[in-house]
């Protein structure tokens, strides 16, 4: 099992590559950062009820539907992704037990970076004192592997996220914007200093290495890049984005336990 330390990735590779690696059966830990800004939809999200696609197009922000759960999120430079691809035999059977166990290296990493966080079932890591969400996580069975993904927010733009939701009027948008500011946080907000991605990546490597036996660093195989490109076409297609998943969105989930009604 290897570590893939990839730096900034363009063309939504920060999402498509872990799907490709999992489908091809490569176990390991991927650490990367998006070079582009885009919306990642959860597997069950009904796009048109949740995201303003016209606004996304106007701002040049792409949209992709991932195979992991969780809600729609804004992905952008300033977020470090950890993507753990494991044999299912290495993961607790119950989903919450898996999240709790796999969150521990990330919780320790935040502590070393200067922020005390805790796990809040089922998807979130929150700042212990304020209970603001500081990391969203998701999982899925892809191919023969269990995939656990999340991000460490170095910086985040709640105002832009609020602009991209499909809302009926300005007052509703202001309520969402205010709730995002009140319930989401990020490293630079907590630490009141600039944070480099490389600093975060090194701490994550050290903490995940305490819980998993990695052979070392490796390059991504070419077949994974090739498959990732094909997956990008599929995961961003109109058919995939506009798929009727059967879900109806009466509220936007800001974090565990906090929702803003939109209907």
From TrEMBL:
Pfam families: LplA-B_cat. Residues 23-216 form the BPL/LPL catalytic domain. InterPro entries: aa-tRNA-synth_II/BPL/LPL, BPL_LPL_catalytic, Octanoyltrans_LipM/LipL. Keywords: Ligase. GO terms for molecular function: ligase activity. This is Lipoate--protein ligase family protein. The lineage of its organism: Bacteria, Pseudomonadati, Aquificota, Aquificia, Aquificales.
């Amino acid at each position: 099992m290897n570590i893939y330390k990839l730096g900034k990735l363009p063309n939504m590779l920060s999402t498509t590559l872990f799907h490709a690696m999992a489908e091809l059966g490569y176990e390991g830990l991927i650490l990367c950062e998006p070079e582009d800004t885009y919306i990642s939809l959860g597997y069950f999200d009904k796009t048109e009820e949740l995201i303003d696609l016209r606004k996304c197009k106007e701002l040049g922000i792409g949209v992709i539907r991932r195979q992991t759960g969780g809600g729609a999120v804004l992905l952008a430079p300033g977020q470090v992704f950890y993507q753990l691809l494991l044999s299912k035999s290495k993961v607790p059977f119950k989903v919450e037990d898996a999240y709790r166990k796999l969150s521990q290296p990330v919780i320790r990493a935040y502590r070393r970076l200067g922020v005390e966080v805790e796990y809040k079932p089922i998807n979130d890591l929150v700042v212990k004192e304020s209970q603001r969400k500081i990391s969203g996580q998701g999982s899925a069975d892809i191919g023969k592997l269990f995939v656990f993904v999340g991000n460490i927010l170095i910086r985040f733009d709640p105002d832009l996220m609020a602009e991209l939701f499909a809302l009926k009027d300005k007052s509703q948008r202001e309520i969402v914007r205010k709730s995002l500011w009140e319930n989401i946080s990020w490293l630079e907000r907590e630490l009141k200093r600039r944070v480099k991605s490389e600093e975060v990546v090194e701490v994550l490597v050290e903490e995940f290495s305490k819980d998993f036996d990695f052979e070392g660093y490796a390059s991504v195989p070419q077949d994974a890049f090739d498959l990732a490109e094909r997956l990008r076409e599929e995961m961003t297609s109109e058919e995939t984005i506009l798929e009727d998943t059967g879900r109806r969105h009466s509220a936007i989930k800001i974090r565990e336990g906090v929702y803003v009604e939109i209907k």
